[in-house]
Amino acid sequence: MSTPERTLRYVDALREALVQEMDRDPDVFVFGLDVDDHKGIQGSTLGLAERFGPERCFTTPLSEDAMTGVAIGAAVAGMRPVHVHIRMDFLMLCMNQLVNMAAKTHYMYGGAAKVPLVVRSMIGKSWGQGAQHSQGLHAMFMHVPGLKVVAPSNAHDAKGCLIAAIRDDNPVIFMEHRLLYPLEAPVPEEPYTVPLGQARRMTRGDDITIVGVSNMAMECLRAEELLRDVGIGVDLIDPVSLVPLDIDTIAGSARRTRRLLVVDNGWITAGAGAEIAAAVAERLGPEGPLTVRRMGFAPTTCPTTPALERLFYPNPATIAETAHAMVRPGGPAWSPAPERAELAYQRSFKGPF
Amino acid sequence: MDDRTTRDADMAARLYRSLRRIRRTEERIAEVYPSDRIKSPVHLSIGQESVAVGVCDVLGPDDVVAGTYRGHAAYLAKGGDLRAMMAELFGKVDGCARGKGGSMHLVDMDRNVLGCSAVVGSGIPVAVGYALAIRRRRQDRVVAAFYGDGASEEGCVYESLNFAALHKLPVLFVCENNGYAIHEPLSRRWAADRLTERVATFGIAARRLESDDVFAVRAAAAQGVAALRAGAGPVFLEVPTYRWREHVGPSEDYDAGYRSRDEAAPWMANDQVERVGALLPPEARAAIDAAVEAEIADALAFAEASPFPDARELHAHVYA
User: Fold this and answer.
1) What pTM was computed for the model?
2) Which residues of A touch B101 (CB under 8 A)?
3) Torsion sign, CA atoms B23, B24, B29, B30
């Protein structure tokens, strides 16, 4: 008889990854504004300061720009900093150091130095997060060679990717999403890595390939349930890692379905969806017809009022409608019943991992 | 000669050798530059050598230097490999960054020369982070971080000063104040020129020297490094100095209109290379000069002979 799998919340999986890596390697440290306070970055760093002491888990002056440089310098010296930002929007203050220094250090010094750095940040959503607490800015980092970008969407991958990121010898932009924090998934107790650059197939289907980034992977999973009601099978893929990007898995799926819908947790223009769609089209275009659509944030600033905010994001209903129209073009339009769409939020993802 | 005199003579010879090595290296670079064999813009430190030389003379091999895009002097003064530097300027694969960094990104991790950055001020927090690692590992090492008066206008420099002071990190901040950010004098960039006083408000021992006299720089650096080793927290030195050549490139630019040769004259009259050289017995000086010329000739020949990186190098080192 097998023991029931242990489940953890995403937030606790992050904390467990940090604890285990800090236990394993004395060069790992966690720093950033408020990582050691009573809230501990929504709980993801709670207890680290008590367990590992103030030299290995410590707050900083706001100074995001210089603190990023400090992390780079400590990394060049051989340590493995995890620099934490409670919102991704604040990474704009770190852009010079991330783009001009972290991304380029290994290359512009001809391999003489490396930057094993993890930059954790969280995307916010709902309850008035608004213009400057809700942005998914991963495309800006994906553009720059030298950075890795990962966006796990479940607790299992959160732990495995964070451990992999800490052990990676490159700067890794580690994107989290506030709405994923309470979601549970099976998480092995022992340390493990989820390889950066390997996509995860969340559901298997033959009619359409849907790629969901970060929290949109969960929204797509809910949409998949709605589409199943009307007999549409979804091959749902979470890229997990955006750089390096597992285009083989995505293109392999789209080769079979000939339909690709990319749903990003960010804006569409010059976004991760554009990159994924273009890479797939380059590969599959010569083989025959391919239907491609992108969804993402409305091309506006994120408004706070719920009346407008709900229109800003793709949701399970709009994703399902879009996919339906791609699979059955020319047929009657279809929308899931609102109460059915609401029910889809009970869906969780428990693997397989 | 008594011990002290011997020590002083040794020090003068050492400082002269370093000053002369940097001066002549850069003069040779300026001579070679028009031939287009150097594949990188060069920001020469001719006239400013004494700052790097005075500071680096009190550093040990394990101590660390973080330079700027005008970094030849700091790189060489810390013992950076001259062959690797010259090959780097020539864009050759034996360069310190395999030809992929150029003059503005000199690096020699074996000599603890952290890579230099072309985005002004950006290397300062990185140097502070290196010092944080030193402190965490309980190592007896210090970091000398050079920056110009222009970098003193970057926010991240002040953020770095604050963090270094807060954590009492072993960093000697050295502001090489040559009075110009590219072509803009300090008076067009600051309402007040009290750079040192500003730094002192962070709780940092801060001192402005009267000149770039190499012995004065060395003495101040020695005092500062002793304080760092005692765990007293960061130290700041502002050293007035003067760039003799143009901001970037091999030539003088006194006819460009933004400064005059008259302004430069007192600095040239107080040339530290000549001044320290004059302290040495002529035969000792001649021997150093000959050795320096031979080393430079060797480095130039090495750079010429080194191959360009092959095509595969383009994609190497994007990721570690």
Assistant:
1) 0.96
2) 108-110
3) positive
Cis amide prior to B309 (ω within 30 degrees):
no
What mean pLDDT is reported for chain B? Answer: 96
How far apart are the CA of A80 and the nearest CA of chain B, in angstroms?
10
pLDDT, tens digit (0-9, with 9 covering 90-100), for B174-184: 999 999 999 99
User: Over the Cα atoms of chain B, what is R_g?
Assistant: 19
Query: Domain spans of chain B?
Result: 3-307
* Residue B234 CB-density burial (10 A; 0-12 exposed, 13-18 middle, 19+ buried): buried
Q: Domains, chain A, ranges and CATH?
A: 7-186 (3.40.50.970), 200-346 (3.40.50.920)
Report strand pairing: A118-123 vs A172-177: parallel
- Which pLDDT does position A351 carry in this prediction? 86
- What distance in Å separates the CA atoms of residue B123 and residue B244, rounded to the nearest whole number? 24
Chain-centroid distance, C-alpha A334: 30
| Residues 6 or more apart whose Cβ sits within 8 Å of residue B8 | none
ipTM rounded to 2 decimals? 0.96
Using an 8 Å CB-CB cutoff, list chain B residues near A116: 320
pLDDT digits (tens, 9 = 90+) for B202-230: 999 999 999 999 999 999 999 999 999 99
Q: In whole angstroms, give the CA distance from residue A70 to residue A63.
A: 10
> CATH fold of B3-307, please?
Rossmann fold (3.40.50)
Q: State yes or no: pLDDT of B265 exceeds 60.
A: yes
Which of B123, B182, B183, B184 shows the shortest CA–CA distance to B156? B123
Can you point out the beta strands (E) in A268-307?
291-297
Strands B143-148 and B171-177: what pairing?
parallel
What is the CA A263 to chain-centroid distance, rounded?
A: 12
Mutate which of B40, B160, B168, B317 to disrupt the A interface (most A C-beta within 10 Å)? B317
Helix (H/G/I), strand (E/B), else coil: B145: strand
Q: Residue A4 has what pLDDT?
A: 67
Does the CB of B122 have a partner CB in chain A at under 8 Å? yes
- The yes-or-no answer on residue A64 being catalytic is yes
Strand duo B143-148 + A241-243: pairing? unpaired
Contact A183, A234 (CB under 8 A): no
One DSSP character per residue, B47-62 reads T-HHHHHHHHTT--TT
Closest CA to B123 of B75, B168, B85, B165: B75
> Is the pLDDT score of A2 beyond 60?
no
What is each CA distance from B283 to B13, B77, B290, B291, B319, in whole angstroms? 12, 23, 10, 12, 51
Measured CA to CA, the distance from residue B165 to residue A289 in angstroms comes to 63
